[in-house]
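in:
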């Protein structure tokens, strides 16, 4: 009986070594997790390897980028690249479009030639690359401002949505500072937005 248990234990160890597989996680785009408003036209990708074995290294990688979460149709497929690089790997696909969401995933091969499965997909959304991408007009108070007291205006607009919202993105800036709210709840966690600049020449914006 003891020999049987010992043999079973050995088989479990052998099986775990045979089927142990390197995994890919910790996907970052420009050192950020699923970032919005990325104003980089050739972003860089970073990922981490994890394994239950020792002395495991990456020998090759493959990156897929798609406009669809299902990865039906590729914006970029790097193919299998023999490299141990997993930090700041540069995007080399089709030109990216403004204000668009892209999904990406990674597959790697270890130093024994075994491949991982695809990583859990990550995403990033591009910024507005061109001035012509801005379609909105400035919102101003509907009254003559008091140049002495200068009260802070509260600008509100009511609207109704007839369909379920899958996602929504706002690009916001201001001459001065702003806080954005929807249904009396703050949209983001940033303060003193949009940031101090020379308002007559340059304005930052948040996504």
């Amino acid at each position: 009986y003891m020999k049987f248990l010992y043999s079973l234990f050995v088989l479990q160890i052998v099986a775990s070594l045979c089927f142990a597989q390197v995994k890919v996680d910790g996907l970052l785009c420009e050192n950020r997790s699923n970032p919005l408003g990325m104003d980089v036209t050739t972003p860089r990708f970073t990922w981490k390897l994890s394994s239950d074995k020792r002395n495991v290294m990456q020998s090759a990688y493959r990156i897929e980028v798609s406009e669809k979460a299902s990865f039906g149709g590729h914006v970029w497929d790097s193919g299998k690249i023999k490299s141990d690089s997993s930090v700041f790997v540069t995007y080399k696909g089709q030109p990216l479009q403004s204000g668009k969401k892209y999904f990406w995933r990674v597959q790697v091969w270890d130093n024994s030639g075994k491949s991982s499965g695809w990583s859990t997909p990550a995403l990033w959304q591009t910024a507005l690359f061109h001035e012509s991408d801005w379609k909105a007009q400035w919102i101003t108070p509907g009254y003559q401002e008091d140049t002495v007291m200068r009260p802070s205006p509260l600008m509100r607009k009511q609207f109704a949505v007839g369909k379920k919202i899958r996602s929504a993105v706002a690009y916001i800036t201001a001459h001065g500072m702003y806080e954005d709210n929807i249904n009396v709840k703050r949209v983001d966690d940033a303060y003193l937005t949009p940031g101090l600049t020379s308002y007559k020449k340059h304005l930052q914006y948040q996504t």
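note: The helical segments are 2-19.
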